[in-house]
Amino acid sequence: MLTGAVRDLHRAHPGEFVTDVRTSCPALWEHNPHLTPLPEDDPAVEVVDCHYPLIHQSNTTPAHFLHAFPAYLNQALGLRIRVTEFRGDLHLSSEEKAWTAYVAATDVASVPYWLLVSGGKFDYTIKWWDPDRYQRVIDHFRGRIQFVQVGETSHHHPPLDGVVDLRGQTTLRQLVRLVHRAQGVISPISLLMHLAAAVETPAGAPKNRPCVVIAGGREPPHFTAYPHHQFIHTVGALKCCDNGGCWKSRTLPLGDGDEKDHPDQLCVDVVGQLPRCMDMITADEVIRRVELYFSGGSLESTATFVPVFAQTG
Hints:
This protein is α/β, with parallel strands linked by helices. It has helices spanning about 1-10, 70-75, 95, 130-140, 170-180, 190-200, 220-225, 275-280, 285-295; strands spanning about 115, 145-150, 165, 185-190, 210-215, 230-235, 270, 275. The chain has two domains: about 1-75, no CATH class; about 100-295, Rossmann fold (3-Layer(aba) Sandwich), CATH 3.40.50.2000. The strands form two sheets. Strands 3-2-1-4-5-6 form a six-stranded parallel β-sheet, sandwiched between helices. A hairpin with a 2-residue loop joins strand 7 (about 270) and strand 8.
């Protein structure tokens, strides 16, 4: 989200600012033309600690997450930033666009691949879906789509069958490259979902990358969804999210001492191991949403570019 704010800062105020950033994810800023290395101790440099308080009004204000950082900067610095694109602002070098690697199973190289996340971080378990339902989706598309499973080792990503398993094997920048070549993405509300919108597609592919998001009722769709994604939500269908997202953290307590185990952070309508809003989303519905891209003509069953898979480099 902050990459989009910096892009739009320079578009709204051309030539007025020189910018640099300090973030927890510097890999997302590689090759960004809006950054200039700046020393924090230079008296001419002003350090702004960026926040996005707009999120606290997300259930009632008709704005997307992309508006949150610009709104804060406008108020803090008296600026006139407006959002100009419905995506973050990531940049790939020409070498990255041509980047190729391989996997041992060469028979997957002739079919398109989709990236898939089967879980997520332990702080927001309410975003997780059922691994058995992910498996049903994979099995349905066997022979048509090669799924590539990604995710950090320290997070919860249950293993799935029939996938290229790259869990814990990619850096953040390698994940960006994988997204660039991916025909599509299946994910809960996650980094991968945002990358699906922000990373450009290769020549010959659709301008907007297909993405099916298993969202449930935690976050209001208008604040989180991208217009070219299939965003499967249940906001408005349940009492706990009848006026926007519930914004809860965990489905069940983990007993790890984290404040997210507090009762006011826990789901109030649990079915088995899932929040009811996620349990209501079936494997058939996710399959249908993927199939829409093919039946509607956005995608062809045979890829128009040769997919490649990344492990190193």
